[in-house]
Amino acid sequence: MIVLSAEFVKSASGASGWPPPGPREYAFCGRSNVGKSSALNALAARKALARVSRTPGRTRLINFFDLVVAEKTRAGGRGQQHRLVFADLPGYGFAGGPREEREKWQEMIEEYLTRREPLDALVVLVDGALGAQPSDVEMVRWGESLGKRVLAAATKIDKISRTHRSQQLDRIAGQLAVPKVTGFSAKEHLGVDELWSALVSTCGPA
Ligand code: GDP
C-alpha cells in the first residue's frame, strides 16, 4: 500500500468528541504494550504518527487518524485509492488496576463499538510471542457479540523463530477462535501489506 497522507485528527473520550462520521473506520485495540503504536506507525508508514497518543492524558482516550492510501499496481504504480480512519483505542489488560478506571474504559469502548456508525472492523492485536491472553479472548468475543467484524493480528512475530511462526499463528487463531491471524512485525516490517489488504478489502474508493 502507498500511504498518500496520514494525519492525527483528534482525541475523544465520548460521542460528543468524535469526529463527524466520515469514511470507513478501523478500531485498533490490544493489551497495553502489545505494540499497537508501533503497528499503527508501520501501517501509516510514519515514524511517530501514533506518538501523539503518548501525550499525557491521551492514553485513555480514543485517537482518530485520517488516511488516504493507494493500492500498488503490479507495475509498481498507484492503483485504487481509499480514504479511511484509524481509531486507536486505549489499551486494556490492566488487571489489578482501579475498578473505577476499568469501568470507565469499558463504558467508553462500549459506547464507541455500539454507536460509531462508520466502524467497519475491530482490529485486535495480540502479542505474537506471548500468545492470546484471557483479556484478548474477551475482547474478540465482545466485539463479535456486538456484531462487529474482527480482524486479528499477532504483533512482534520477529521474536518467534521463522520455523515456528505458522504454528504459533494457528495456536493463537485457536485460542481466539477466529479463522485467521495475520503475523505482524513493526520491527521487521512483516505482515504490513497483508494487514492492509484485509483492511481495504471492504472499504470503498476515496
Ligand atoms: P503499545 O503500548 O501497544 O502502543 O506498544 P508500543 O508500540 O509502544 O510497543 C511496546 C514495546 O514493544 C516497545 O518496547 C517496542 O519497542 C516493542 N515492540 C513493538 N513492536 C515490536 C515488534 O514488531 N517487534 C519487537 N521485537 N518489539 C516490538
Please, how many domains?
1
If classified by CATH, what would the architecture be?
A: 3-Layer(aba) Sandwich
Strand content: 25-35%
Average pLDDT metric: 91
Please give a structural write-up.
- With 206 residues, the protein is of the alpha/beta class.
- The chain has one domain: Rossmann fold.
- It has helices at 36-44, 99-115, 134-145, 165-176, 192-200, and strands at 2-12, 25-30, 62-72, 78-88, 119-127, 149-155, 181-183.
- It has a seven-stranded mixed beta sheet with strand order 1-3-4-2-5-6-7, with helices on both faces.
- A hairpin with a 5-residue loop joins strand 3 (62-72) and strand 4.
- Bound molecules: guanosine-5'-diphosphate.
- Guanosine-5'-diphosphate binds at residues 30, 32-38, 91, 155-156, 158-159, 185-187.
- Residues 30, 32-38, 91, 155-156, 158-159, 185-187 line the site of guanosine-5'-diphosphate.
At a glance:
By secondary structure, the chain is α/β, with parallel strands linked by helices.
List the helices and strands and how they pair.
Layout: E1 2-12, E2 25-30, H1 36-44, E3 62-72, E4 78-88, H2 99-115, E5 119-127, H3 134-145, E6 149-155, H4 165-176, E7 181-183, H5 192-200
Parallel strand pairs: 2-4, 2-5, 5-6, 6-7
Antiparallel strand pairs: 1-3, 3-4
The structure holds guanosine-5'-diphosphate.
Using brief descriptors, characterize the structure shown.
Rossmann fold; alpha/beta; 29% helix; binds guanosine-5'-diphosphate; 206 residues; 7-stranded mixed β-sheet
